[in-house]
Amino acid sequence: xxxxxxxHFDFSGRDEQELKNLAPTEAHRVASLRFNLxxxxxxxxxxxxxxxxxxxxxxxxxxIIGDRGSLLVLNAExxxxxxxxxxxxxxxxxxxxxxxPDFAHWKNQRPVPEKxxxxxxxxxxxxxxxxxxxxxxxxxxEATFSGESIIGSLxxxxxxxxxxxxxxxxxxxxxVLLAAYQALLLRYSAQKxxxxxxxxxxxxxxxxxxxxxFLNETVVLRSQFNDPAETFRAFVGRVKQQVEAALEHxxxxxxxxxxxxxxxxxxxxxxxxxxxxIYNAQAKVAEQHANLTV
Length: 294
Hints:
The chain is of the alpha/beta class. It has helices at 16-31, 68-86, 100-109, 114-123, 156-168, 173-189, 232-248, 254-261, and strands at 6-10, 43-51, 54-61, 193-201, 216-224, 275-276. Helices cover 37% and strands 14% of the residues. Strand 1 (6-10), helix 1 and strand 2 (43-51) form a beta-alpha-beta unit.
């Protein structure tokens, strides 16, 4: 893949109005560059110089080598290194007791836990529902991954209500919003059964906390809607139990699960589920140098 290379673009000397447009456009361009998995180093960095003491660093890494937790670790280490360089001292970085290739080798060599396989076989047995969300045009046989994004925000008041509901039910905002997402799918698809995929972290060992690597697994939640009188609070309770059980049996990777269950494959459609819910809790901001912002 070759050695790591820091690209550098010098825009110093441009007028302020031009920089307002040029800097974000260039940052977006370099962040959007595709990786060639066969040839490229799967992390790249670009330094955009706006003035003699004003720079922007854009770091991109392919999802196959890092997850959100990895980005938080990388950010924290960059802050420490930057602060140490400013202070002319050696950066203090935590040494890893285990490297990611060692963890990946262990994970690939370990036997698949029979208890977890039994749980998933029982949970996902029989004919699985296929998402029936209505579309404004026929779905293509081959996936193109060229869809658009719709972005919305909860108000601070609604966010507080979600957290308060979670507290009153003894669960998390993740579970409440996951239940709301499934209720939304029910509303638009009118299906009495749904499967939803959701990623979970496997950073549950001390030696993995500060590791950069892909340390997520995808679990599949299967829900039935047989009682039209069921309240949303009761449904949140069911989802809570599902999530707890899935976390207990997350030691089966999604690839292992597909190979084990051998579900019917449909061209252009993901096996086991077609709808996914991702929840990212607000991360703790790493300690930053006074002259460094992110």
